[in-house]
Amino acid sequence: MAKIPAKVRERYIKQVSRFQKILTAARKRDVNEADTVSIIQDMLGEVFGFDKYLEVTSEYAIRGTFCDLAIKIDDKIQYLLEVKAIGTELKPAHLKQAVDYAANHGVQWVVLTNGIVWELHRMRYERPIDHDQVSSFSFLEIRARNEEDQQKLFLLSRRGLSGSVREEFYERVQSVNRHVIGALIQSPDCIKLVRRNLRKMVPGLKVEEKEIEAIIHDEVLKRDITESDEASQAIAKVRKFVKKKVKRSAKRTAKKMNTSKQTVVKALPPNSSWSSGSGHD
């Protein structure tokens, strides 16, 4: 977990309950999108710690296109914010304009919110360009003194931009999930471990790795863990890791062999035909 400064925690404790009341009242009145934007601008300043006059801009909202707000610091866009009216249920289609603009201008992070629900998305610049949801929470359910909830707010806060808080959280979300864990269970190392332990449990047992792999794939794991798009991405990630691991292992082995060879050569007598590189037929 990221270390949250005491001053930031104090701000959460002071401001969260205040804006929960404001949002609840706004939802009862079913305020429109423009009024929701105004509330969010205040939240960005008073809860998340941005300078709403210098760092929060609507310059990318042109006749309702691109996005409604942006966090811009030192001429660099940190977030694009797509805002919907407080009574609107957020859907993936609502992200399209902001994501398209982000993709065309190399922006890494996009936020979709109606003031109550906040979604943080990270662009993935691959082919095709896509995006991943990194975090989602209801502001009305935030407990200002709870450390886990403070972490959710910190991801979107001004102080959270420093260091690698967002990237580390994103990497954790990408790695610690059912699809990656499912892919690891199907990896060669895991299958070898299962086979080895089965043979220890039942001495003389004849079982092949392919048989174990088939049982894990077809009978142990759920279908969406083995056959979904997320599963394919997770398997590709694990394969990449395994490939790097094999390369590192090969390099270590080659280095050890080279070191051993040098040690042997140093140990040979000065006039040795092995150390001099000459030999006899």
A few lines on this structure:
By secondary structure, this protein is an alpha+beta fold.
Task: Give me some keywords for this one.
281 residues, alpha+beta, tt1808, chain A, six-stranded mixed beta sheet, two-stranded antiparallel sheet, 11 helices, 8 strands, elongated, disordered C terminus
Structure report:
The strands form two sheets. This protein has a six-stranded mixed beta sheet, sandwiched between helices. A two-stranded antiparallel sheet has the order 2-3. Helix 1 (6-29) runs antiparallel to helix 2 and helix 6 packs across helix 10 (229-267). It has 281 residues and is an alpha+beta fold. Helix content is 53%, strand content 15%. It is built from eleven helices and eight strands.
